[in-house]
Amino acid sequence: MNSSKRVSKAGIIPQEFGNLANLVDLGMEDNQISGSIPINIFNISSLQRFGLWRNNLKGSLPPEIGNLTKIQILDLRENTFIGEIPKEISNMMELEKC
């Protein structure tokens, strides 16, 4: 299944997005999304593109980011993440653009 979900609203990333098991494209670029990325988002093993640039996201990236093994495009720029990039990012063997 080739699912795609785009949101365009201020607020937080809904926890329920982590239940979308067949999602391949999740774009939430250039919104007023704040808070942190819900940990269960990193369990969407089918995700190929995850766009979060130009939001107000904060916090650190968890090691679970490495669960996105099919990810090809990961765009996190223009947020205020802190800390180091988790070593588990090396699990993203399909990553083309980060």
Automatic annotation (TrEMBL):
* SUPFAM superfamilies xref list: L domain-like
Write one Pfam family the protein is assigned to.
LRR_1
Instruction: State the UniProt keywords alphabetically.
Output: Leucine-rich repeat, Repeat
Taxonomy, top ranks, is: Eukaryota, Viridiplantae, Streptophyta, Embryophyta, Tracheophyta
Tell me the protein's name: Uncharacterized protein
InterPro entries for this protein: Leu-rich_rpt, LRR_dom_sf, RLP_Defense
- Give the originating organism: Solanum commersonii
User: What is the top-level taxon of the source organism?
Assistant: Eukaryota
